[in-house]
Amino acid sequence: MKISTKSMFALMTLILTLLLSVTAQANEQTEYRYCQVSIKGTTSVVSTIFRTQGKTYNLGYSFKLHIDAEFGEYPNVVYCPVFKTYQDAQNARNSEVGDLRRKDWTVHTVQWSYRGD
């Protein structure tokens, strides 16, 4: 079977494009987060831990909209720290929830994750 130069060039271009696409996706670092807001005086809402990869420009805004829909209050500030591992995020989240409860805050946990920009 003989392949023409034109076909070989098209095939090589396709392979190179696919490789560059896979490399770009692999270079986007996976991070783990949870979001936390304070509402109604001494009430806090904390999300579950979720994974992000790539752009997260609308993360805080999206969480604010979720809180507004669930609790009827649009928070001013959203705290969404970044962690390299799921375990680090879980430890920090559990510590945050424990600290708030020791201060007699009401803490609601919500199932929420960010799908990306």
Describe this structure in words.
The chain is an alpha+beta fold and 117 residues long. The strands form two sheets. It has a three-stranded antiparallel β-sheet with strand order 4-1-5. The model has no long low-confidence stretch (mean pLDDT 83).
Distance between the termini: 46 Å
The secondary-structure element order is: HEEEEHEHE
* Global mean pLDDT: 83
Roughly what percent helix?
A: 40-55%
Number of helices: 3
Structural class: alpha+beta
Rg from Cα: 22 Å
Give the biggest sheet.
3 strands, antiparallel
* Major beta sheet, strand line-up: 4-1-5
Cα shape:
elongated
Q: How many extended strands?
A: 6
Q: Approximately how much beta-strand content do the residues carry?
A: 15-25%
**Uncertain residue ranges:** none
Please summarize what this structure is.
The protein has 117 residues and is of the alpha+beta class.
List keywords for this structure.
single chain; 117 residues; alpha+beta; three-stranded antiparallel β-sheet; three-stranded mixed β-sheet; 45% helix
What's the SSE blueprint?
Layout: H1 5-27, E1 30-33, E2 36-39, E3 43-47, E4 50-53, H2 59-71, E5 82-83, H3 86-102, E6 106-110
Parallel strand pairs: 3-6
Antiparallel strand pairs: 1-4, 1-5, 2-3
